[in-house]
Design brief:
alpha+beta, Neutral Protease, domain 2, Immunoglobulin-like, Zincin-like, 4 domains, globular, binds ligand BES, binds zinc ion
């Protein structure tokens, strides 16, 4: 039994009998996770042995999942989450048993009931994945860079692990795992575990993750990728056609891990590698333990987008080590990570650079809060939200990320950096390999930082941040030094100065982003043309800049950018880029353009991105 689980059981028992002799920290009752139907809070799930075969022709993963369990509470059933899985049979300690399935529930899937005895130890489920496996994206060879081999990867967060492994799929349940994965023998398999660095002839790969992880961190990638070491503990896997560029882009990642350790304590996971996925990946990155999954769109050639890696690396502390108890506490994963990411970036570069990231984040947050206001949805602008009955992905907003990070920034500014860092170090240490609820975090903050200091408590105003709407008044804004210079150049340009005359020397990607973001929309055609002539934004290799430019182009109907924009949309599946760009087309009456591009691009997008865009562009629910 993992430590955390023991704690939940104890807390539950405590709640029932109201035993006042329990320790102080156990007086906070952990909320029930509404996004799992598993009963792994009663039956103790310790270890998973996965044995599967990946079939690219059938687009199916098939095999068995063996769970090592203990049943000290004498439960008669083990309940596992599944989603669109075919269950062939189930054995308990080697003997076939009669399993049953519950009704399919929207988002949650189907609970699998397995009869067990008090002394049952091993439960083996023989299964296959279905066509509706939300975690799986099967890429055709032509959707990869080298176009020779197919590619498969999983995305399990938040509740998709159950669509490829029958599992107790909640962030509060941790287990260690080992796996045997069979793939076509010209491909390599990689997991969130110890990984091979080379292909073998058999196509059979074995994995070990001895550190307990929640199901949302289960990950598998299969394709033709090559490994290149960065230093002794870090490295990158990428398409052979991209490996040089990827290796160069991530050259600082070895140092980044050291710097993160200087900030918040030892990196506890062994290796830190990166797997660069095909460009259809719907996310920027995913913090799979030991193996961050990353979009190739951060490979810009100038290392200016590696803060995304800083973010995924930071999750090795916030999220993977100290985990949100339920998805309602998601801000504890992401807000902490954004804060950590910016501190790390600051230490790797300087304050003025990190300040630009803080400011861009603030702008995103303002935008999101305004949108929520318009939609009369201010409840979702609280840090602590209620996702019951909803897809947890709905919590994936700038509130969790930017409001969460800003809250920590405010605490830092109020108590000072030294105290803040001491606090965070002990926070990570004392909650390592456990979950934390928002309420527990607040109690911990009260106990270790606020310590009854009323004036301090008022300055911070926890309630306004956690249980209140929007951006609280006491939010701090970053130093605008570098962006003020950008503002001045933008003003000059808007009042007639030719682009060639602007002083943009030494600008980084983030200065350019601020320059473009605050342009009037639409900008007139002459100005678009002048900018493009000088800076060639239409052909920018920097995905962030290109995306912004295409949004401006759509708003202005600046046609010279459309061919490149189409190329971008057909290649890139990152939701963050797609939704705003297609929305701009829809909102400016360019429905036909949107439809015709989407028709060509759709097959390259992740099923979840397809869902969002089908609704937006094709009006399909
Ligand atoms: N863990 C998230 C991705 C995620 C969250 C997937 C919730 C599914 C549900 C990851 O760490 C993340 O935040 N990715 C960001 C990048 C980051 C730099 C903000 C992304 O993909 O945009
Ligand atoms: Zn994150």
């Amino acid at each position: 039994m993992t430590k955390r689980l023991a704690f939940v059981l104890f807390a539950a028992a405590f709640a029932a009998c109201n035993n006042t002799e329990t320790q102080k920290e156990q007086t906070i009752e952990k909320a029930v996770d509404k996004h799992t139907q598993s009963n792994a809070d009663v039956v103790d799930v310790k270890h998973l042995s996965l044995d599967v075969k990946v079939d690219f022709d059938a687009k199916q993963i098939a095999g068995s999942a063996t769970w090592s369990i203990e049943n000290p509470k004498h439960a008669d059933t083990l309940k596992l989450d599944t989603y669109d899985l075919t269950i062939d049979s189930v054995k308990v300690d080697g003997s076939l048993v009669q399993h049953s399935k519950g009704e399919f529930k929207k988002y949650l899937g189907t609970v699998l009931n397995i009869p067990i005895e008090d002394n049952s130890e091993k439960v083996t489920v023989y299964y296959k994945t279905g066509e509706g496996a939300t975690a799986l994206q099967w890429m055709e060879p032509q959707q990869t860079l080298s176009k020779k081999h197919p590619f498969l990867y999983t995305q399990s967060e938040a509740i998709y692990a159950r669509s490829w492994i029958p599992s107790p799929d909640g962030p509060g349940i941790r287990f260690s795992y080992d796996a045997r994965v069979q793939v076509p023998n010209d491909l390599i398999a990689l997991m969130s575990a110890t990984n091979p660095q080379q292909k073998n002839d058999s196509g059979i790969y074995r994995f070990e993750m001895e550190i307990p992880v929640p199901a949302y961190l289960m990950a598998l990638g299969v394709g033709d990728v090559e490994f290149r070491a960065i230093d002794e503990r870090t490295g990158v896997y990428a398409d052979p056609a991209l490996i040089d560029k990827a290796h160069n882009e991530f050259a600082e990642v070895g140092q980044m891990v050291h710097t993160a350790e200087e900030l918040y304590g030892a990196y506890r996971w062994g290796r830190y590698d990166i797997l660069v996925l095909p460009s259809g990946f719907p996310l920027g990155g995913m913090e799979n333990p030991r193996l961050t999954f990353a979009t190739p769109t951060i490979i810009s050639g100038d290392r200016s987008l590696v803060n995304l890696i800083a973010h995924e690396l930071a999750h090795s502390w916030s999220g993977n080590l100290v985990t949100n108890h339920t998805w309602n506490d998601f801000w504890l994963n992401e807000g902490f990570t954004v804060y950590f990411e910016r501190r790390l970036t600051e230490k790797m570069t300087d304050k003025s650079y990190a300040d630009m990231l803080w400011e861009l984040g603030y702008q995103d947050l303002e935008y999101t809060v305004n949108e929520m206001q318009e939609e009369d949805n201010m409840k979702d602008s609280h840090l602590k939200i209620d996702l019951a009955g909803r897809e947890p992905d709905e919590g994936l907003t700038d509130i969790a990320y930017e409001k969460g990070a800003l809250f920590l920034k405010l605490i830092e500014n109020t108590v000072g950096r030294e105290k803040m860092d001491k606090f965070l170090n002990s926070y990570f240490d004392e909650h390592a390999f456990q979950t934390i609820t928002t309420e527990e975090f607040i109690a911990y903050l009260q106990e270790h930082l606020i310590k009854g200091d009323e004036a301090l408590a008022q300055k911070i105003n926890i309630d306004a941040w956690v249980y209140g709407p929007g951006i609280p008044e006491n939010a701090t804004r970053a130093d605008m030094e570098r962006f003020e210079k950008v503002n001045a150049e933008r003003e000059k340009f808007l009042s007639g100065t030719a682009p060639a005359e602007l002083n943009t020397k030494g600008w980084t990607t983030h200065e350019w982003l601020h320059f473009l973001r605050k342009m009037p929309k639409p900008l007139d055609d002459t100005k678009m043309t002048a900018l493009d002539k000088e800076y060639d934004f239409t052909h920018s290799n920097n995905s962030e800049i290109a995306d912004l430019w295409y949004i401006m182009a759509v708003a202005t109907k600046y046609k010279p950018a459309y061919a490149s924009m189409e190329g971008f949309l057909v290649k890139v599946g990152r939701r963050k880029f797609l939704t705003p760009l297609y929305s701009e087309m829809m909102e400016t009456g360019q429905t036909e353009t949107a439809k015709s591009i989407y028709e060509k691009a759709r097959s390259n997008y992740h099923p979840l991105a397809q869902g969002t865009l089908d609704a937006l562009i094709l009006n399909k629910q």
